[in-house]
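Case study 2.
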Amino acid sequence: MNALRDVTVIAIIIVSLLVSGCINPTNIGQGPRVPVITRETTPAPGPLSSQITNSQAVPAALNDTTMKSLLTQSVNRVNHSLQSLDGNVSAAATSLGATGIAGPGALGILGNLTLSPSVVDAVTVTPEGNIAAVMPEKYQNVTGSSVASQTHIIRSFTTGEPVLSGEFLTVEGFNAAAVVYPVHSLNGTVLGLISVPFLPERLLSDAISPLINDTGCEVTVLQTDGRIIYATNSSQVGLMTFDNPLFTSRPDIIRFARMVVSNESGSGTYLTQQNRTVENYWTTVSLHGTPWRIIIDKIRE
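Prediction:
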């Protein structure tokens, strides 16, 4: 009887606490919540602007080790995407050696390459530097156009090697980078080239964005000439770090950017306009001798 009376008393006490709001039923049996840090918006310009949305929750565990891990994962995913695209272009070059660089067979091969989300079109180029075939069909008007003056076309014809170009203005009228491969006939004769323009921002976003969303970090990717080809702050994509007034007015950012393009990997800092320190780590991915610098940053708490 005493045990029954004690259980009844305990039950009455719990009911009273629930009614009074001292206990939230949804918290019963749960451990302590993971603490979060909230950052304010910071408008500091630069290759790594670290502009954070108001009240964005940043995990308290975010530290240098986490940043380095995110950078490594980003590099691995970008490398995978580049290698996948490169492999597809290489295989297409081999197939074109059998079909030739013009005609229905060539168009079918080029069309398959454009199924990749980041690829805009695919062309073959004659030894004279003229476009022999192009897909998709909406770009057929550039057939016969000369691309002989494009640096990556010259380089591939001269070296006989595949090339990853820097960003350039295509004859189709958009900015892109391109993977280029020589095309050899079955007896080894050079038939021309295959050039596949793609959007670096799309390829990089697909690889990087899923990793860094809601982490409080930002990522920027630079060519070694200073052109931004990907940034969490997408308004900076396409800007030239060393020429644009947004950056040239900030000597600390120019100093940092010069350090990045001069070194394959490293770490560094610069200040926001509110004198807050931005911590950065960077490293390099490359394809056919063309490097991209991948930089991750966060504002020091």
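The first helix runs from residue 2 to 20.
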